Amino acid sequence: MGNDVRTKMIRSAAVLFRERGVAGTSLADVVEHSGAPRGSIYHHFPGGKDQLAQEATRWAAGLMTRLIDRADDPVALVRGLAGFWRAELGGDFRTSCPVMAAALAEAESASAYAAAGAAFTEWETAVASILVRQGVPSSRAMATASLMIAAVEGAIVVARAQRSVQALDRVEAELVRLVSHLLVDTA
Predict the structure, then answer these.
(1) Cα–Cα distances in angstroms (integers) from residue 145 to residues 134, 139, 187, in the given order
(2) pLDDT digit string (tens) for 42-74?
């Protein structure tokens, strides 16, 4: 049971960070959202909000890493990432990437901030590996992977602010074009 409560709190923190950011999410919010007993927060997270934010960031990062790792085709990956975020944004545009939220929260949680940096590096490396397996030189693969991650993350912010997926659609189209040309050039 203890691990179930802990896992629920980590998931709840990630969900709330997506909507409110790290600074806008209190421990009481996480307890309420997760349905955990009030006294359990410091039992499971003796480091308090900093520890919870770090673990929620790592958990969310792991979900995206697994999504990336399932891809063999970089064009399908671009489409898959855009489709995932299009669905996540839904019609209300209240959500964003919890890892991005942690990357913007250095003052609130240095540990989550560091976990976000590690997550972006992990995602870039995973995407670059897919490109290398398709014959793209490693230096070009890493640069393209960085561009892909940065463009998608930026498009999420723009889509949320504009309450439209138009930026995400444009980024998807341009990344598909770029990656398709890159694959042809290295064939």
Answers:
(1) 13, 10, 18
(2) 899 999 999 999 999 999 999 999 999 999 999
User: Of 77, 57, 59, nearest to 130 (Cα)?
Assistant: 77
Residue range 126-174, pLDDT digits in tens: 999 999 999 999 999 999 999 999 999 999 999 999 999 999 999 999 9
Domains along the chain with CATH numbers: 54-185 (1.10.357.10)
d(CA 24, CA 45): 19
Whole-angstrom distance, CA of residue 144 vs CA of residue 73: 14
Q: How far is the C-alpha of 115 from the C-alpha of 103, rounded, in Å?
A: 8
88-109 residue pLDDT tens: 998 899 999 999 999 999 988 9
Tell me the Ramachandran region of residue 90: left when phi exceeds 0, alpha when psi lies from -120 to 50, beta otherwise.
left
Q: What distance in Å separates the CA atoms of residue 24 and residue 16, rounded to the nearest whole number? A: 9
pLDDT of the residue at 2? 56
How far are the Cα atoms of 118, 124, 129, 145 from residue 139, in angstroms, in the given order?
19, 12, 11, 10
